[in-house]
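Interim report, section 4.2 (structural modelling).
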Amino acid sequence: MSILVVGSVAFDDVTSPSGSVKNILGGAATYFALAASYFTKVRIVAVVGEDFAPEHEQVLTKHGIDTRGLEREPGKTFRWGGSYVDNLNEAKTEFTDLNVFEKFQPRIPHEYADTEFLFLANIDPTLQAAVRLEMDSVRLTGGDTMNYWIHRTPKELAETLKLINILLINDAEVRSIAHDASLPRAARKVLAMGPQALVIKHGEYGATIFFREGAFGVGSHPFRAPALPIDEVKDPTGAGDSFAGGFMGYIASQGEINREVLKRALFYGGVMGSFAVERFGTERLQNLTREQIDARFQVFRELTHLE
Amino acid sequence: MSILVVGSVAFDDVTSPSGSVKNILGGAATYFALAASYFTKVRIVAVVGEDFAPEHEQVLTKHGIDTRGLEREPGKTFRWGGSYVDNLNEAKTEFTDLNVFEKFQPRIPHEYADTEFLFLANIDPTLQAAVRLEMDSVRLTGGDTMNYWIHRTPKELAETLKLINILLINDAEVRSIAHDASLPRAARKVLAMGPQALVIKHGEYGATIFFREGAFGVGSHPFRAPALPIDEVKDPTGAGDSFAGGFMGYIASQGEINREVLKRALFYGGVMGSFAVERFGTERLQNLTREQIDARFQVFRELTHLE
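Predicted structure of the assembly:
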């Protein structure tokens, strides 16, 4: 099954303890699409500017990503600059130039009308909802958000959460939406707002999936996947989007949704996140094989597997 | 096999978002001994004051803990006050009255001379080393330390690390000893200082064990155990010592050390830590059954187990 991602494509400047890069291809939709492309066919809806060259688009098309939803607008592509020098776990934003992204109005090409799996990357919740409501064919919607929307547009976000089947956010975002410091309690509160499942991304500690009672018929026990201890995290940018790409991409590749598929998806999410951070930008995600991915899946499995 | 713990017995005042308690029995050796007592025979060496009443000692003896190494000195027992109101993950120390603990000189009763498993809880590294060197019968030594010693007595600590087979500390302590922000790199540096294995306690995210090449013949791949998401952490005090008690207690109960034993020990550590935080002080650790412990072990196992 193919999966559609709607979100940002950007050019990033990144500084980390491992060095500094400028103008590298980034954006949530880019990381997601590349990570998911190792599992299934991927379609993308995003907006880029005149500085988005054919070689940038080839990064996507080389991986079989359908770019018919990539809109070109006069002006520059979204640009973001961030630094991880003080804290590898949280970017300090140096600048955000929204450029053509400021007026992004996702338009779904008619060729995408049969999409069954949808991922709404971190954009304005009102746009997320509009995309979802436009697509009758969608069976499963994953979504992301961030503190900016949690604080600025809580009502709109609450409406969008009713349309999202699996929400993927981090610890701080869960606590922030629920106003509760206890992660399991906060998880239940978020699930009561709409999603059937909530994936909490713990960064270097892995991720936990919580289920609403009765969701997907998989039971209500949470499940946790570890993250691989990585010697040198070069660039954490896009780790969460790569996680989402592995997670959603694997689910879309399986077609049916059951507990074992969701558990494996959580592991594949961790695997793709762990690859992403090993190089700056999307470099590592551009140069993988499914064999390397499955080998690391086995390492993750062994990491917590009791006889 | 019986295990000996050397460390502090204390009376604690604790404030957390769940409430406030005063003068409750605590101390690293107390938490460790109670947690380990569900797996094996436990011996304790510690010092208490005149305010340590028979009912306090009974908390230990009721669990079969051998208290012949409990020394009574004129004066008051060690007292500690801490608050978790702002941060459940780190205590804010309100006061520390060392009292009789200030001049603690561990004396090993001759009845303990056949001890094969030893745990050196967090005390002055010089005392830790002296205890270890005095005990010829010991086959395996576990140990803990804290930032106070890492910064104040790094040389003495380095000597002690040569005598410890398995060091159990948290993320911040590992980074602090190794002067390295990367956990796997820091782990290798700590292992190069002496221990054959390093258990890094991640709090609510579980724990990872790293092995020195060739150690215990178990391979050099790390292993990770999850922690159970707990709805309400009432009192995090002693969670790390309870973890150590479950971990070392299970190892001592098995006699032989292999990879599967160490992996299960890591899970049992997490189980005992998760019980400890459910009530103030040692209350939960005082009222458990091995059946409850094994049931939670299964929950932990299911939490990360792929078919």
